[in-house]
Amino acid sequence: MKQILHQNNFFIYTLILLPLFFTNILYVVASKHFEPIEIVELQSAGILPKGFFDVQTNLFTSGGVRMSFRLSPLKNINLGLSFGGTNIIGTGKVSFQNLPGVLLKFRPIDEKITFPAISFGFSTQGFGPYNYENKTFETFSEGIFAVASKSFTNFLGYFDTHLGINYSFEPRPKDRKINLFVGISQEMFNILQLNLEYNTTLADTINMKGKGLLNFSAAFWLTNNLCVGLILKDLTNNIKQRSNPERNLMLRYIGNFLPSKTSN
User: Fold this and answer.
1) What is the percentage of the chain residues whose pLDDT exceeds 90?
2) Among 11, 50, 126, 211, which residue's beta carbon has the most beta carbons within 10 A?
């Protein structure tokens, strides 16, 4: 009889405390908003605020792992380094990319009510396995890029649209050309971020079939500083070496290295 009473008390306390627990989590997570820095793989016009940094880990096909670090030492300027390889998880010979990826991103125009934010930059970090024979990533790095992003609000949160161009230096010189990409992002109550991007991959005749690369991601904020995400890459089956979409995982941490009063 006592055991039954204890069990009933446990369930009663659980029913009372569980909503309070989740309400507290929702309040903590929803109290902070970070604009999307990337759409899925490609850059948006978003910028880390001054004094902030982030560390991101991506797990991708062939046992691949990529680590990225970005910081914002000055307002509207982001610097980054990244490095990765394949067969780091699982079996087989570990193979790293040739050189670390670098990122320089500058936003000279902030978003206005009637005008988008515009960022320019340079990135040498590609995506997927690195091919030493061709000296290219499975998805080319962006190279020089320019991207515009505009935010709107709805009952779910922020809705962002993105339009960008880039010129990668990975293709052979005769194959290089301007590439286009577009994307959308929907934030849901500052907890969930859904992203969709289309990369035309116009310059890539080595790895792509010519249909363009459609990628989707969902990122869930566990706390103000930590989020986990699932990436579904190549929904159009555009990569020659793939017959199905690829599933990647992402873990991201955002921190502040300056006092809060100087990080705005």
Assistant:
1) 73
2) 126
Q: How far apart are CA 69 and CA 78, in angstroms?
A: 10
* Residue 248 contacts residue 239 (beta carbons within 8 Å): no
Instruction: Using alpha carbons, select from 23, 29, 20 the residue that is nearest to residue 224.
Output: 29
pLDDT value for 23: 37
Tokens of 162: 């993105």
Total residue count of the chain as it appears in this document: 264
Between CA 264 and CA 257 the distance in angstroms is: 12
Domain boundaries of the chain, sorted by first residue? 1-31, 34-262
State if pTM tops 0.85: no
Q: What fold does the segment set 34-262 form as a domain? A: Porin (2.40.160)
51-82, pLDDT tens digit by residue?
999 999 999 999 999 999 999 999 999 999 99
Position with higher pLDDT, 246 vs 16: 246
Q: Which residues contact 20 (CB under 8 A, 6 or more apart)?
A: none
CA dihedral (136, 140, 146, 151) positive or negative: negative
